[in-house]
Amino acid sequence: MAENVKRDKNFFALSLKGIGRLQNQDARLVIQSEMYDVFAVFDGVGSAKNAKKATQMAAMFIRKYHERFLHERIRLSAMIAECNDYIVASNLIEPFSTVCIVVILKHSEDVFYISVGDSRIYLVTNQYIEQISKDDKVSDSNVLNKCLGMAELGHGDFEQKRFRLERGFLALCTDGFYSLMEKNKLLFFNVLNKKRPSTIRENLRKMIKGNNLDDATLLVIK
């Protein structure tokens, strides 16, 4: 019988303020526990009055309450739905944020995820980059039809999905990052598949800095 080996995930992050932005409204979250790891990125909706506050509140809620939803079984949908309720209950004006979040079990290749808004989860292998998540946008526009902080969203609007990570690694990112990557996918693919995390991060920083109109955040999980 194969030994049940605990797999600890390595990760690194990069986040750059967008050109002309007064502050970086993105946020990221990493939680590593005995049973699972949680990775998330948040992107404050640019025109919303309390976008930065929304990203901070979402990250804080998940950090504080994750065990309630993930300890005995993975209830990611319920966690994000209650996170949304928490933000809405703040009564802030326009507390809007995207989120993409993955939960990786320590003794398994199973990955659970939810994406709300237009931040993305990619699978990166030595052969391709594939978008795993689906954007919540009105067709052929940049208008979001779903994000955290929307009072009209109910618990049924947050769907937990699952897949097995049998090869490659995951990259979570906001639109300020992938809008550049999608324009030159081969170049980004080659950089992301370099061996040393420090080399990847520095190369990506040089490629993004001064070119990202929006805040650009990347969280790579290997």
TrEMBL record:
| CDD domains (alphabetical) | PP2Cc (cd00143)
Coiled-coil regions listed: none
Membrane-crossing segments per the record? none
Give the matching SMART domains: PP2C_SIG, PP2Cc
Residue span(s) of domain PPM-type phosphatase: 10-222
Q: Which InterPro entries match?
A: PPM-type-like_dom_sf, PPM-type_phosphatase-like_dom
Listed name of the protein: Protein serine/threonine phosphatase 2C family protein
Organism taxonomic ancestry: Bacteria, Pseudomonadati, Bacteroidota, Cytophagia, Cytophagales
